[in-house]
Amino acid sequence: MEYKKSFFGRTIIDSSDAEEVEEIDEIELEYYKTHNLAERNERKYGIEIVKILKNEKFNIESKIVNNISNEEKEISRLLEILMLNKVTPVTVEDVISDISVLD
């Protein structure tokens, strides 16, 4: 699958967000907009979230959720919500599912 990924934004989870973070310093979350260049159907845009533990050089986790929407503005709105709420790769699919139920 051929797709393009563009950086959307970055946020940090620290001890003010979660008590568990004290023992691991802070977590950096990066958010990306993905565009499936080969997709011909209605849902060619998606997202990727990358989680990086700052004190552990090679501890990186990511999740790509493709084919969410054909509207780039809708993906940008979704990414704003995810970033504002500091959604991690582990929970992103559940959060997207919950948001789609509310629309």
Plain-language structure description:
This protein has 103 residues and is an alpha+beta fold. It is 23% helix and 39% strand. The chain contains 2 helices and 4 strands, in the order ββββαα. The longest helix has 13 residues, at 72-84. The relative contact order is 0.20. The model has no long low-confidence stretch (mean pLDDT 85).
SSE layout and pairing:
Blueprint: E1 3-13, E2 27-36, E3 45-53, E4 60-69, H1 72-84, H2 92-102
Antiparallel strand pairs: 1-2, 2-3, 3-4
Question: How many β strands by DSSP?
Answer: 4
SSE order, one letter for each helix or strand: EEEEHH
Query: Averaging pLDDT over every residue, what do you get?
Result: 85
Major sheet, described briefly? 4 strands, antiparallel
- Report the principal-axis shape: globular
- Share of helix, binned: 10-25%
Q: Proportion of β residues?
A: 35-45%
* Discrete helix count: 2
Strand order of the largest sheet: 1-2-3-4
First and last CA, distance: 29 Å
Q: How many whole angstroms does the radius of gyration measure?
A: 14 Å
Structural class: alpha+beta
Task: List segments where confidence is low: pLDDT < 50 over at least 5 consecutive residues.
Answer: none
Which oligomerization state do the chains in this entry correspond to? Answer: single chain
